[in-house]
């Protein structure tokens, strides 16, 4: 599978773009596989990663490419909110509050990353980079959880990782 192929989980659970100009953030975008896919499906995409040197930004110059270190302690989108945030294979727990605030009311977060148990398949192995059981469900417990999955992921034949995924919609009205 090409490294530019988006995650099947993300493409399966991504809501349709609600209106022209609806905004999406691809957090820790890496090579941009989700950024490109989202842009192709009508989203106005901002993609951020600490190193974009290997990202083919010319492939879609309409994407707002941002090179910034998300772990420096300064959230780069303080005055911006998104209709959709996508996070895949990245975990930095101090960003949870920023992510919650950066989703517009009624917007969605799609978050998929490794969890405890992944150690037997390879990296990451450190607990700092592995979600605990039900962790995303707890972080977004006051949101409307559309889908929550956790456990072994296979390549069709054999298990290759242990992951957790959530699709959650931020309530339109704060309680």
What does this structure look like?
There is one protein chain. The chain has a 7-stranded mixed β-sheet. It is 15% helix and 32% strand. The radius of gyration is 16 Å and the shape is globular. The longest helix has 8 residues, at 33-40. It is an alpha/beta fold and 175 residues long. β1 (23-27), α2 (33-40) and β2 form a beta-alpha-beta unit. It has helices at 8-13, 33-40, 96-102, 135-139, and strands at residues 23-27, 44-49, 64-67, 82-88, 103-114, 144-154, 159-169. The relative contact order is 0.15. It is built from 4 helices and 7 strands; from the N terminus they run αβαβββαβαββ.
The secondary-structure class comes to alpha/beta
pLDDT averaged over residues: 94
Number of helices: 4
Largest sheet: 7 strands, mixed
Beta fraction: 25-35%
How much helix is in the residues?
10-25%
Radius of gyration: 16 Å
Q: Which stretches are low in confidence, meaning pLDDT under 50 for 5 or more residues running? A: none
What is the number of beta strands?
Answer: 7
- Give the strand order of the largest sheet, numbering strands 1, 2, ... along the chain: 3-2-1-4-5-7-6
N-end to C-end Cα span: 43 Å
Oligomer: single chain
SSE run: HEHEEEHEHEE
Q: Judging from the principal axes of the Cα atoms, what is the shape?
A: globular
